[in-house]
TrEMBL record, chain A:
<keyword id="KW-0645">Protease</keyword>
<dbReference type="InterPro" id="IPR001539">
    <property type="entry name" value="Peptidase_U32"/>
</dbReference>
<dbReference type="GO" id="GO:0008233">
    <property type="term" value="F:peptidase activity"/>
</dbReference>
<dbReference type="GO" id="GO:0006508">
    <property type="term" value="P:proteolysis"/>
</dbReference>
<protein>
    <submittedName>
        <fullName>Collagenase-like protease</fullName>
    </submittedName>
</protein>
<keyword id="KW-0378">Hydrolase</keyword>
<dbReference type="InterPro" id="IPR051454">
    <property type="entry name" value="RNA/ubiquinone_mod_enzymes"/>
</dbReference>
<dbReference type="Pfam" id="PF01136">
    <property type="entry name" value="Peptidase_U32"/>
</dbReference>
TrEMBL record, chain B:
<dbReference type="InterPro" id="IPR020380">
    <property type="entry name" value="Uncharacterised_MJ1658"/>
</dbReference>
<protein>
    <submittedName>
        <fullName>Metal-binding protein</fullName>
    </submittedName>
</protein>
<dbReference type="Pfam" id="PF17393">
    <property type="entry name" value="DUF5402"/>
</dbReference>
Length: 348, 253
């Protein structure tokens, strides 16, 4: 049974390594398309051409793996509702269809409906950036034509809602296992909109300073418990989600290095990991070089999260767990040390 | 002194790239020596006027140029590469790193393409650099910020920079510290940075913190030895270079 949906940076060398690491567990790989057409709400790196995608589709198919192209801008600037925009999207989807792309990930309801109607051979995944977080919203997208829904990461640890969604729809459900974003992040919508424009068609905003990224890193230094309460799923806890009917598990990290991605693929394939959990999380590299969050120390925490009412102000469980976090200092100097967090911060 | 050498090397690099490509438009806006929080050290040169195809054509020559530059500045490169501007075919940076163990793993293998937007010239083992004291400079600022903030604030990257205009200095890219905390211990920070600058051969005309736009979070702390042109602008017109800067120290000439 193939159950992993894996981030792919976009070049053939990466695809080969990822498939090798997947050990038969990879259901699909996903990568960005042309930023000149629709773009994505995540940073893009390379400039993957149609010919590159065609070759990679063939290679993936020869290994029984599906290819998904991510077109999940959270803001299309109204272009999709113009005749020119519609024509451009139709042309690009035709190109993807012709080269054998199996599915696309979109965040815009209009695109879900349009693709379902005009491109019946292309399966539709609703992006986690559509923030599907209730049975009602899931039903709405299923009716529009979704074959798969990637759920809002903010409900990853909310089992009653996950179960209700499972009961409400028959399409495949996918969860992101390793996104390191802050739970109920106040910047989430605005950040995705910014990135959608930065990684979409011209004109692109010149991003010299990235307010959201800088602010979010600062918040986690000030409140390290945010590293714990975030929506990630440990490799050991995947079985809990399978038990409630989640079909697919998405490994995020299109802008990470290939070896980083394959390390994640191996950890989730093995369903166990012993080391710094932050090494598996798709957040800024600087945080995993600053903090050490021992994955083994989190064993069993899922039982608490399964019944958690997400009232962090009253609960304090994740804050108490954060005392397990260690902090690096003086890397590669004679004074290099890994110190307990409470040497810097009082953790009650 | 290292800052002077960096200024000269930036200029030499620009001249060599212009000769190599026959293009008068090649511009090296800045050359930096850096130390990262992970333990990587290296050099970065910011390039304008070159394309991906130039990198392919002059692969061998660029590898040698970047290696010579790096060795001259005391960095033995365990990886050197060209980085494109994301989503384009424009060359953005030429870099050489002496990688930490974690990053060594990330860069290794994959047919020399750990990311699609970089083109690796060379991979080797790390740990042979001479200028490792840059890691201690980074760490010393980090410890100071942690002492001030009483939280695990960190210096993500410490740079020694040399710009095309002739300015040079240092920048600590920081996270987890706020403007009021910096201002409350301004003297302590300024004195630490002046001392550190002296060791690097930099005489700062100003030291300032850069704020995350519209907030009280600090994004960086810079010490700048301004070139004559920039100095005149700042002094004569009393211009603070950007609205997001908070001046901690200004030496008038």
């Amino acid at each position: 049974m193939r159950w992993l949906s894996v981030a792919h940076p976009g070049h053939m060398e990466a695809l080969k390594e990822i498939i090798r690491a997947g050990n038969g567990n990879i259901y699909e790989v996903y990568t960005g398309g042309s930023p000149d057409c629709i773009g994505t709400a995540r940073s893009g790196l390379g400039r993957t051409t149609t010919e590159d995608i065609r070759e990679q589709v063939e290679y993936a198919h020869s290994h029984g793996i599906r290819m998904n192209i991510v077109l999940n801008s959270s803001c299309l600037g109204g272009r999709h509702l113009t005749q020119d925009g519609h024509n451009l999207y139709r042309w690009y989807l035709n190109v993807l269809n012709d080269i054998g792309v199996d599915s696309v990930t979109v965040a815009e309801p209009f695109l879900v409906e349009m693709i379902a109607k005009e491109f019946p051979d292309i399966d539709i995944t609703v992006s986690c950036i559509a923030f599907v977080n209730s049975p009602q919203k899931a039903m709405y997208y299923e009716e529009l034509g979704a074959e798969t829904i990637a759920l809002d990461i903010n409900i990853n640890k909310n089992f009653p809602v996950l179960q209700n969604i499972r009961e409400a729809v028959s399409c495949k459900l996918k969860v992101l296992v390793n996104e390191g974003c802050i739970l109920d992040c106040p910047f989430r919508y605005a950040h995705f909109n910014l990135l959608s424009h930065a990684n979409g068609p011209e004109p692109r905003p010149p991003l010299k300073y990235e307010y959201y990224q800088q602010r979010c890193a600062t918040m986690r230094v000030k409140h390290p418990e945010l590293l714990i309460s975030s929506g990630w799923i440990r490799p050991e806890d995947v079985k809990e989600y399978e038990a409630i009917g989640i079909d697919l598990f998405k490994i995020s990290g299109r802008i990470q290095s290939v070896n980083w991605i394959t390390n994640c693929v191996r950890a989730y394939s093995a369903r166990e990991y012993h080391g710094n959990l932050l090494e598996l999380l798709d957040s800024t590299r600087e945080l995993r070089r600053l903090f050490y969050l021992p994955n083994d120390a989190l064993e069993g925490a899922i039982e608490k999260w399964k019944v958690c009412d997400k009232n962090c102000y009253k609960c304090g469980y994740c804050k108490r767990l954060s005392k397990e976090i260690l902090v690096y200092s003086g890397r590669r100097t004679p004074n290099e040390e890994l110190k307990p967090l409470n040497e810097y911060l009082v953790v009650e | 002194m290292i800052a002077e050498k960096l200024l000269e090397d930036r200029k030499k690099l620009e001249e060599r790239l212009r000769r190599l490509t026959g293009g008068a438009n090649v511009f090296v806006s800045e050359a930096d020596l850096f130390a990262m929080s992970c333990g990587c050290i290296g050099i970065i040169s910011y390039i304008q006027g070159m394309q991906f195809e130039d990198v392919e054509i002059y692969h061998e020559e660029l590898m040698n140029i970047i290696e010579e530059l790096s060795l001259d500045l005391g960095i033995y490169p365990s990886v050197s590469y060209a980085q494109m501007k994301p989503g384009t075919f424009d060359l953005e940076r030429l870099q050489a790193h002496d990688l930490c163990d974690n990053c060594q793993k990330e860069y290794a293998g994959v047919g020399g393409k750990p990311w699609p937007d970089i083109l690796i010239f060379k991979m080797d083992n790390g740990g042979k650099s001479n200028f490792t004291s840059i890691l201690e400079y980074r760490s010393s600022i980090e410890e100071l910020l942690r002492e001030i903030s009483r939280r695990p604030a960190y210096v993500m990257q410490f740079n020694i920079f040399a710009r095309a205009c002739g300015c040079c200095g240092t920048t600590a890219v920081v996270r987890g510290i706020f403007g009021d905390e910096i201002n409350a211990k301004k003297d302590m920070i300024v004195s630490h940075i002046l001392e550190l600058s002296k060791e690097l051969g930099i005489v700062p005309t100003m030291i300032y913190s850069m704020m995350v736009h519209g907030t009280d979070a600090v994004a960086g702390i810079s010490a700048q030895q301004a070139c004559e042109g920039c100095r005149t602008t700042y002094e004569e017109y009393e211009i603070i270079p950007r609205p997001d800067l908070e001046m901690l120290y200004l030496e008038k000439g």
